[in-house]
Write a structure and sequence with these properties.
alpha/beta; about 15% strand; about 45% helix; two-stranded parallel sheet; 3 helices; elongated
């Protein structure tokens, strides 16, 4: 059985196409393409604002955890982006 996986702080904006089975942490599907244009600082500020609206605190420990996960998943993002670019190059233009 194959498992679909969407990483931490990822964003999926479908464009009428099938989504990939794996979206790494801190990546997005934008106009049908995988990219890594999610800004970590902006994502952290968004998380802080969302929790504040819910009357919860975004703690320094949570921020450290997200920054740590960002570093740990760097090579995963690079590999997925490389594969995505290679796949786009191999698809014939119609």
């Amino acid at each position: 059985m194959e498992i679909n996986q969407v990483g931490v702080m990822s964003m999926l904006l479908p464009a009428g196409e099938l989504l990939p089975k794996h979206v790494p942490s801190f990546c997005r599907i934008w106009h049908g393409q995988l990219d890594d244009q999610i800004d970590l600082a902006t994502g952290i500020e968004t998380a802080r604002a969302v929790l504040e609206r819910r009357k919860q605190e975004f703690t320094p420990a949570q921020e450290r955890l997200l920054r740590h996960v960002f570093k740990l998943t760097q090579s995963e993002r690079e590999t997925a982006l490389h594969r995505s670019r290679e796949k786009r190059r191999s698809v014939p233009v119609t």
